[in-house]
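#random but structural
TW: two for the price of one
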Amino acid sequence: MARLDEIPKELLIDSALAHRMLVTFVREEVTKVGFKRALFGLSGGIDSALTATIAAEALGKDNVLAVTMPYRSSSPESLADAKLVADSLGIETIEVDITPQIDAYFGRKDVPTSEERIEQLRRGNKMARERMTILYDLSMSENALVLGTSNKTELLLGYGTLFGDMASALNPIGDLYKSQVWQLAQDIGVPEKVVEKAPTADLWSGQTDQEEIGYSYAEIDRIFYYLVDCRTEVETVISKGFDRSFVEHIAELLRQSQYKRRLPVVAKLGKRTIDRDFRYPRDWGY
């Protein structure tokens, strides 16, 4: 899966350069706003494993906290893989079981029920948001910034939960397509078992990203590369030999999910409105 010959040639990166840039990014962005530490959810998947590896190098293993947050249906293999990553880096981990909170909410008589598929998605979204509330609570107790673990493919697809896994203070891997995550993780020494496993959000038993999305990440990444990075029109992408229905579907997902990639839109009344007229220059530091 993560072999270089399976990664689209358009998306091959200079791993050594990307590695240095991302380590520097985390170190500078964390420290310039007055923090020394960072934390994140460690799922056992490749995205959080890569984030963990970058953070440990940027801040030092003693300044990184990995949090595992299983639900009762979570795969034991995912927890084992998370432990494998943490042990390989020598970073601290804590486990917070989210089963009581999730089951208590959906067990309430005043919470409406839905048909099975929608119910499954609702539960998955609730789990993602519960995990992020835990990370932000621990952020205060640990005096640490929350790092995101969503890659560029997921962000462009909208394949994530708004104010759940898509929330963070900093996201070191958000400009890496999934294919590039595989390449970089493989090249900088993320455990092979984690690199080679089938991607899954582990929201319910047997769930895999490819089954959920309907296409492979390598296929999707190529389409996004042309649509987003190259600003190629849909018809021109199709003319390169891609299936029309596939390209149009991916382009529509990109359009429909734009609201997830924006901060809340503020209704303008005054002369300087937050999010358009007044934007504080973050690079001034604190």
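TW: number two ↓
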Amino acid sequence: MVGMTRNWIIRQLSLGEFDSHRDVWRKSTVMAVKIGLLAYVIDVVSHIMLDAFGLLPYSLVSSLIIATVLTPALGFSLALTSYMVIGFAIHDLGVSRNELERLSRTDTLTGLSNRRAFLEQFDRCDRDKAMLVLDIDHFKTVNDTYGHLAGDEAIVRVAAMLLKVFSDRCVCARIGGEEFAVFCQDMAFAEFAALGELSRRKIAAMRIATKDGEFSITVSGGMARALPHEEFGAVFSRADKALYAAKSGGRDRIRFHYETRDQAGDKASGRQTA
């Protein structure tokens, strides 16, 4: 009984988390009302007990009037002030924590997911999925010719184009210096491949202006289909091999590496396929 009572009191007086400053005001006010009423009840009971033992130095009626006038107001004011201070501190800490978590999962230059976030989202997905890995061709030449600011602009423009083409149907990430990755779930592989090719063409058509003149860039890509149980490493390895084939084959193209369900089953059982 004592434990249940204690837990109930803790639940009643706990502020929890806050979504906004308005939420702080609302919860603090509710808590202050509860504490003001609790202080009033305790004050009244205390006066009644003191009167019953003859220890009250003034009349019970007078003491109850004073308790009614002062105790709720004082209890409410003190509780509201205390809870507001604590509430705003909790809210600000929560905002800072969420922002740090967001920054730890976001590429600061492009606003895309970073490698860590991409890997986690990919591995959490237990449905049919596919991955595209893209790399900006001759990126070192861009930096050497037009400067690193121009290189950064090229990376930002590629990221924006990937978001535009794949929209919110896929997860886009910057997983390295000039390397990007995209994965989708429950999308026909042919449609995903078509979007990958569309992004390649649109990137090649972009013109990037600098003080030293305009330039264009191209990307090479590798695409691989995954089974629901496959994790990032295995699928990325196949996509990366396809990317290498695209680079070796002349760049500005996308190559595919598709592993069938039978091949995946053979690997899992230790058999070799031709």
